[in-house]
Fold this sequence. Notes:
Structural class: alpha+beta
Family: Belongs to the glycosyl hydrolase 15 family.
Strand content: 15-25%
Number of domains: 2
Shape: globular
Helix content: 25-40%
Distance between the termini: 67 Å
GO molecular function: hydrolase activity
Number of helices: 16
Low-confidence stretches: 604-614, 619-626
CATH class of the largest domain: Mainly Alpha
Protein name: Glycoside hydrolase family 15 protein
Radius of gyration: 25 Å
Keywords: Hydrolase
InterPro entries: 6-hairpin_glycosidase_sf, 6hp_glycosidase-like_sf, GH15-like, Trehalase-like_N
CATH architecture of the largest domain: Alpha/alpha barrel
CATH topology of the largest domain: Glycosyltransferase
Amino acid sequence: MDYKPISAYGAVGNQKTVALVGRDGSVDWCCFPHVENASVFARILDAERGGHFTVQPAGSFSSTQRYVPRTNVLETRFQTATGQATLTDFMPVPDAIRDEGVPNGTLLRKVTCTHGRLDLKVEFEPRFDYARTVPTVETTDHGVVTTGNNESLSLSTPLPLRVDGASAEALTMLEEGETRWLVAGYGHEPEIRPDAHQTLLERVVDRWQDWVDIGLDRRNDPVGGYWQDVVVRSALTLKLLIHDDTGTICAAPTTSLPEDIGGIRNWDYRFNWIRDSAFTVRALSELGHVDEAKEYFDTCLRHCADNDPADVQPVFGLHGDTDLEEETLEHLSGYQGSRPVRVGNSAADQTQLDVYGELIHGVYATAQYGAEITDENWAVMKDLLDYVCGAWSEPDVGIWEMRDDPQQFVYSNVMCWVALDRGIAIVEETEFDGDVECWREARRAIKEDVLKYGYDEDVGSFVQAYDNRILDATSLLIPILGFLPADDERVQSTIDATLDRITTNGLVARYEGNDGLPGEEGAFVMCSFWLVTALSLSGRITEARETFRQVMRYASPQGLLAEEVDPATGELLGNYPQAFSHIGLINAALHLQEAETDADDPSASATTGAKQSSGVNTSTRAERER
């Protein structure tokens, strides 16, 4: 069978796991009980053996997909020659689970014939442990139960299911106004209770909409201005990827969706990257969700506290696990033949010096929005700052996790500068102490070093590393992070060089040249939003607005973004939906909104969103005891 485009999938979840539902009504990817566990459905990675759960009209049909407004409840609408139907997919969110007593690991599917009549087809074909286990299937009073690999997945439905080997199927006719429920339960067998299921659906819709409204109510103006709808969709996607148990953020709920169709650039993103922190905080906090930002940083700092500063892993598991050994699943053919399929990620063992700056910057920024820095937080941060003070000049593999020899990356040094700069600011604005003189001296040395060796006059741009002349999109972050002001000539020439050399139709590549891996990759969505932000800060509003519009043309019909876009075809590439891309969208929209506001009213504050505190919010142990 043909593989669907990545953009043909919507995502539903319960803040513990995520299922990808195709526009054809097929669940082609889902892991239980958590997103980092082995898959139960993986047809997106192997059309023949991966497993799926399909609900769709029999015969020919067309379909569209959309979310219930301001929710992560997905609707797929089918049209046949004889009728129309709507398939609604959702998982109960944590507070609805607690209120309604619904077990975790429940996927509910409601199909209603809205016009005429049609024949409905159901295929239920779980394949446990990344399709390494073909289950046994048995009928029950409520439907069927499949077992294998010490796991079970049940399907409860009033439809008459027929067992066929290692799968179950049904065929029935729906008349106008008729509704059928199909409920999958991991490790449990649900009962079919239509009234209770409908009540649960309404509760889940209310919970998602309440979460959005709480954030919007804290603002005095539309978030993202003209782009509010796509900003809200990105916020909901980000919330879907925040693990409810730990507050960690899943970079994406999938593994091995390729950056190069048919190639080997296939990675597992079902983990928490510390570097996402610096970009996440503004996105969450500006949308009124400071608590999520604070919980995320607490988790990252606890991870750092358990390790020597030199041994901090840049990526770790959603439950804090550090063993992310990379494994190849040889039995899976990969999306459109893109092999290998990988689980685990060896980037966990790399040295990436930029993560220290991103973490410290993120904590400092969160404090500007009212979150507190505790004694325990500061003790960890101070150790990290002392380490950066001596380690900044060492080579590393950089933000792009190069799998070749370490280099002196410009962005890594800039982020070390950011770490020290924010650490110094915290000491200056609070009663916390630290080796500020050492930090100031290192901050000065880093800046001199970067300006001397990181900017190439002949290229007219900041470059990727001290020993090359390669353009790198991370240079766009220099004004965003405050390393240099946006009106600095070197910043403006870097933006111009980026537009000229690594940008196509608003899509920005990560960098120029060969990175040591075979094949090519698409343009990186986050980098495109960095360009929007850099242009906005520069007052180049028309260019920023047009770039934002160009990038948004590549979002899926459901408003979701993958990691990359193929500039030649416009197809989404890489793992999906990608937190980094949606974080970039939110931040770019906010910066663009601020720039437009300032252009209309020069006296307006540079920050038009959620009100920030005037300084760092701290809480010492003695103050809390009082």
